[in-house]
Design goal:
Rossmann fold; 34% helix; five-stranded antiparallel beta sheet; single chain; 10 helices
Length: 397
């Protein structure tokens, strides 16, 4: 059962689109800058809930509780029709995927690169795409076994001595390899198939807050784990669920009442950390499959002298530039617009700027380099966030 994601609740900025464009062009994407301000303000309750997905979970014990948590999160988010199951038997997984009823495969492995290698070697990705060409595969990049430090960890209490900077450095170094693998796989299939969920980064932020004394009710890093390996404890499970929900449903978990046993204050912190980590990481792919119809008022491209891509378009004189993201509907729409750009233009997208007119109107300027010409694609929206016009302005470099 193939479904397109709904427009509401999606918060995503231009770097993810640029990543897609570069993947389609066969280039590496590892050097992209993360998204910027405003990403953590999206509300889970904003807009109608998306349609429930058929999610297949697999991997090892670190991922095993996800099928039990996702129905609870879906209920809290008002999502209906979701189906989740767990299967770790390779042949049965392939049969389920080839049947075409799976929308999302969520795969958990402490060894990130090992997990992607398994999927490729065992033809899991190939089988899944035969059954459902729109299948999305999410690799959960959890924290490292023993923090990847090589130090002797005998009990979970040993994690209390961990240096947050060292933990993060290990994650940063490991990330490069798995991103390269994801790039190669996505180039192979000519589209984004594999997505990465930065759970390890989110967990490090939680541990940092514990060390700083700003995570209420928790005084020791070891309290997030259940043993020396370390398997997740309740805090880690909740964070994992929020990250998974954010990536798979492309919505913020902030405001969800499900908390996995957390206090309201702890829940809010975990939800914001999860959303920030997922929404700002290009490989998590907060994107939409919706392709809106072209506006009847779309204006043909007309070069306007003296209006450069790095300058404020003449049509926006008197408007105010802002850093905050516009409504989710607008964000979804302009990302879909970028994805519809001709293949020769998509790699040239290098920035997106936001404007308001003080009367409820919004505008988005998509900046694109094409050869020796800098283009500004100007998308204007009314108070109801409906796209009114598209105009294009150009200036020779």
């Amino acid at each position: 059962m193939n479904r397109k994601q709904g427009k509401n609740g999606v918060t995503r900025v231009w770097p993810v689109v640029v990543m897609m464009a570069i993947w389609l062009e066969g280039s590496a994407v590892g050097g992209a800058e993360p998204a910027t301000a405003g990403m953590s303000t999206n509300s889970a309750g904003k807009g109608a809930p998306p349609a429930g997905l058929n999610i297949l979970y697999s991997g090892d014990s670190w991922h095993r509780s996800m099928p039990g948590m996702m129905p609870e999160i879906a209920k809290a988010a008002g999502i209906t029709g979701q189906k989740v199951e767990w299967n770790g038997v390779l042949d049965k997984m392939k049969a389920l995927l080839e049947d075409g009823k799976i929308d999302v495969l969520s795969w958990g492995r402490p060894g990130w690169s090992e997990g992607l290698s398994e999927m490729e070697h065992d033809k899991i990705i190939e089988s899944g795409l035969k059954g459902n060409p729109n299948l999305r595969i999410y690799l959960q990049m959890a924290w490292a076994v023993h923090d990847g430090s090589g130090k002797k960890i005998e009990t979970k209490d040993d994690y209390d001595n961990a240096k947050i900077a060292e933990v993060q450095a290990t994650i940063d170094g490991t990330r490069k390899g798995v991103e390269a693998q994801a790039d190669a796989i996505n180039r192979k299939y000519g589209k984004r198939v594999v997505f990465l969920i930065p759970l390890g980064d989110a967990m490090t932020k939680v541990r940092g807050r514990i060390v700083d004394g700003t995570f209420p009710g928790v005084k020791r890093q070891s309290e997030v784990f259940s043993d020396a390996m370390p398997h997740p404890g309740p805090i880690a499970w909740a964070l994992m669920a929020y990250c998974n929900y954010a990536a798979v449903y492309q919505r913020s978990p902030v405001g969800l009442t499900w908390g996995g046993g957390m206090t309201e204050e702890q829940r809010e912190i975990l939800q914001n950390i999860a959303w920030e980590a997922v929404s700002k990481y290009p490989y998590a792919g907060l994107a939409t499959n919706d392709v809106p119809e072209a506006s009847k008022n779309e204006v043909k491209a007309v070069p306007v002298a003296g209006v450069g891509a790095t300058a404020v378009p003449e049509a926006l004189q008197g408007w105010k530039a802002v850093q905050e993201l516009p409504d989710d509907v607008v964000v979804t729409d302009y990302n879909a617009y970028i994805e519809q750009l001709p293949k020769a233009e998509r790699p040239g997208v290098f920035d997106v700027k936001y404007y308001v007119d003080g009367k409820g109107g919004h505008a988005v300027a998509v900046l694109v380099n094409v050869g020796s010409v800098q283009w500004t694609h100007l998308l204007a929206y009314d108070k109801q966030n409906k796209r009114l016009t598209v105009s294009k302005h150009a200036q020779s470099k």
